[in-house]
Specification:
single chain, mainly alpha, Histone, subunit A, Serine Threonine Protein Phosphatase 5, Tetratricopeptide repeat, two-stranded antiparallel sheet, elongated
Amino acid sequence: MSIVPKETIEVIAQSIGINTLSPDVALAVAPDVEYRMRQIMQEAIKCMRHSKRTILTADDVDVALNLKNVEPIYGFASGGPLRFKRAVGHRDLFYIDDKDVDLKDVIEASLPKAPLDTAVTCHWLAIEGVQPAIPENAPVEVISAPSDIKKHEHKDDDLPVDIKLPVKHVLSRELQLYFDKVAELTLSESDSALFKEALVSLSTDSGLHPLVPYFTCFIADEVSRGLNNFPLLFALMRVVSSLLLNPHIHIEPYLHQLMPSVVTCLVAKRLGSRLADNHWELRDFTANLVASICKRFGHVYSNLQSRLTKTLLNAFLDPKKAMTQHYGAIQGLGALGPNVVRLLLLPNLEIYMRLLDSEMILEKQKNEMKRHEAWRVYGALLRAAGQCIYDRLKMFPTIPTPSLQSVWKTNAKVLTSSSRKRKAGPDQSEQQPPLKKAATDVEDGVVLMNSSPVHKPEETETQASSVDSIIGSSSSAQMKIETSLDGELRSNRDDTQALKTSAALTQVWKDELNSGRILVSLFDLFGEGILSFIQSPEMYMFL
């Protein structure tokens, strides 16, 4: 017996426009409809179980219809349960009450609010007992509220909201006096001996960690307000350097407040208001300070150096910036290391030198101050490029230059060979006296002995003299042999050195190292000034 009655088949037939369906046909079609429905529902239940769910949804039915190559049902969503109503006059007939919607009303209706994406953000609740004044925490106005633990407010929907007050940071009286004294010395007595002692105290004392947030705020405020006060800016940077040197202070959480002030003292357009203010020295000091920060805390903040180099590179490549700003950017990039110079400065050096040449020539730039600034920038570029090429050449094997002592030895060898006596010919040897002839024969490697067993006294004396001459001649021959061996060894050593030089030059001129081409390009830009940065062994290798 089918659970699908024939009346359901007749209603479905009428909904699709078939009004003359006989009862016998409806009764015959009902079992097949039931079979198809069971098949679809079984597939939908499988999809539900594979999805680790216990509630069947319209999406499961759509997937089952797709598996059977049947067009899915439109107009149904899985947002909520379907509401069925019983048909009037039919006890077992149900239908879904679908409301007719006018498309005009749908088009003219206001768009609903876009749902918010789920996101997770991090912020500091408290840093060393101090709750920072950021939007995620309590507003600044709450700080001046009464000293109650909680304060109730009401929103528009009359729901009470609890606002927690920031944690109070309690400083001892001694630390307050210490901070006030250091701040006073920094502002007014930065040239005194007491200020130098205060810097030493800042770099060594172990109980100053509670004052770090106060010093960071003090430095940020004074730098923003005192760009025209050169002694104050230099004193503030010295305070930052002393704080960084203190091994007992954990300054990492406060770097985001210190770095803007430090970078400002590096690439600001004007530092100080007087011509006597040596802002070049301040920029050099700040560049070394920035490099030490990146070296020490680069592993903690992975994007610290990348953000800093991006800021400095933008200042360097902007032609609208002043020469003082370009100088600070070059010094900062140069202090970060030869690799930063090779990757960021050298590719843009040729284009920048075209801009700089017009500022250095008297005919094109009449302002003496701007010409002085341009020459300062030129010196900074030369120093950065020279240190870069020197660092690149240090990685190659050292080729010693020929020393003066070896040249003297060579000259002595030449003198020795030139002082040798010419060998006597056959005719001349016959005319020589016996002593000289014996010596000459020894030089030729033949020793002539008298075969007569009887010797006269005169002959004995002559033979003794000949023996002495033979000994002297043999020692002279031995010295000649040693000299020739020394020359062969030195020749082999020179050949080995030549091979090493050739191998080193091959390594230098490789495309991936590119050191030789860098040196040639730098020589074209700076001339012989770049050669002063290359030590004699490396210079000899290229020569």
